[in-house]
Design a protein that fits this description.
The chain has three domains: 72 residues, no CATH class; 109 residues, Cytochrome c-like domain (Cytochrome Bc1 Complex, Chain D, domain 2, Orthogonal Bundle), CATH 1.10.760.10; 83 residues, Cytochrome c-like domain (Cytochrome Bc1 Complex, Chain D, domain 2), CATH 1.10.760. 57% of the residues lie in helices and 5% in strands. The chain has a two-stranded antiparallel sheet. The chain has a two-stranded antiparallel sheet with strand order 3-4. By secondary structure, it is mainly alpha-helical. Component of the cbb3-type cytochrome c oxidase.
Amino acid sequence: MSSFWTIFIVVLVVINIIGCVWLLWWTSKRRPGEPETTGHVWDGDIREYNKPLPKWWINLFYITIVFTIGYLAWYPGLGSFDGYGGWSSTKQHDQEREIEDAKVAAALSPFDGMSIDALASNSKAVEYGRSVFAANCATCHGSDARGAKGFPNLADHSWQWGGDPQTILTSILEGRQAAMPPMAAVLGSDQAVLETAVYAQSLSGTKVDPALAARGKPRFETVCAACHGANGRGNPALGAPDLTDDIWLYGSDFDAIRTAIVQGRAGNMPAHKELIGETRARLVGAWVWSLSKRSTDGEQAGAP
């Protein structure tokens, strides 16, 4: 805060305090003669007198003013003046956070260093993981971890970067940066983009124009296969998704696929190591991995 505003606040506070003291002194004066009236009259002869407050009541107001002066001196209530007590909301917040962090660390310490698959078999660890997820991850992935357009579903069997426990932990701790570059210029024409998009759409079993798909196949194998593979099954090492299943992060309709080819995609999963620490990251990973594992086990159980 600038010195001008500090002076302005100090002067304003001083004027108000002096004004309150003067008002109390003036209204508490006992004047000689007949008591003044307020001018209010009821039933012809009942008048409201303007008599001073009792001394004990006036003294309480004076004590309040003295308390106010002491409070403003001890706490930072006068502009940029820090106060003699050295208190600040930031310091109080940090102190209270340290206390709560210590409690959380003590509660989570039994899970330090445990692997995600081991934690997933511990019901208490999984419950902790769900709570941490709700506080830190649900904004993007949803409270049920099923994601939304542009944010992957973490409860199914499809993992863009790999779904083994260690890879999930790496994704949480270090984050991920997906990069689908714009490919329209490489393909060379709108017709080439159309044909490639149609072929990509056909990989997941969608009914498309077979002639367009046939012309798009060699373009795909020349331009797109470097990341997605010649068969379109993707590459978890690069974060290139499998295009042959029915799981599409941005949508499987033609317009969504064409937009991805023309404009590219740039998904970002921020690193959470500094935000939640390694133990809580492991707990989150355990809960998410347990959801995915149930999904995978369910598919296998239902397979012929």
